[in-house]
Design brief:
18% strand
Length: 346
Amino acid sequence: MRVLGIETSCDETGVAVYDSGAGLLAHALHSQVAMHRDYGGVVPELASRDHVRRVVPLIHDVLGRAGLALRDLDGIAYTQGPGLAGALLVGAGVATALAYALRIPVVPVHHLEGHLLSPLLATERPDFPFVALLVSGGHSQLFDVTGVGQYRLLGDTQDDAAGEAFDKTAKLLGLPYPGGPALAQLAASGTAGAVRLPRPMLASGNLDFSFSGLKTAVLTLARREAGGGATEDLPLARKADIAREIEDAIVDVLAGKAMAALVATDRKRLVVAGGVGANRQLRERLRAATAKRGGEVYFPELVFCTDNGAMIALVGALRLAHDGSRDPGFGVRPRWPLASLGQAAG
């Protein structure tokens, strides 16, 4: 079964073709980072317009590299939500029109389900069941995953997610957009323990997350260090020390909660997905922690940590095999809790 996947939820246009027998055949991604950098964040209207320009040429490119024509497809999957409404409508409109014209199934996919199952694209893929740590710009969540569509929410973010904490604290230090990767790069030259920040909710006794207090603590620390001056004008070495502590604090919380989730569910396998899953320190910490427990941890390839069409094509193929062909109608869901999929399945 060959499925074309289209991802347009935010600021990256992703297209891919996945074959349920042969695996990923081809994928392509266009990032809008350079376009949004001048604004310090994503401008929804600009994002939507850029998706309109990019998506059809990317489809032709991917099909060409896969050696396929439109008539060779068995289904088309697209990101229905969550995300920016205008951006989602671009992918939904193109996918639905193509599928109806070709008389093949169209599959709406939950963006976060794509991230959650993206490690299945790797050569060493996890078996069900597993605990999933989903960490991205807007989400920090833990799920107990027993199969496709079977997701039980264990812990959720109460305010700022880990990705937001990276981006917002990076901005406080005057680092360029996108802030998360810039902060991680600067942290590599910082001294561990040179400053101290809180580890929010690490000892809360539950599996929920909260990082808004960390942002406030960073602001307080940076202002004190700046002595009344602008925080972005701090010496680079001091910024590096603060960046190192920010990264250490976030990683401590994510790793601590993930290990607690494995204990609570008595699972041995941990899956990490989402953009923050590309963080090198987080990967190293989780590898060591799961090995100490006699478990295993799985990550998507770095190219599939951020938004991409491959994960949407994969979930489309899995959904067609699992749920069969049905007409979902047309629409997007800018707000759509992933836990609702598990509730529907149950």
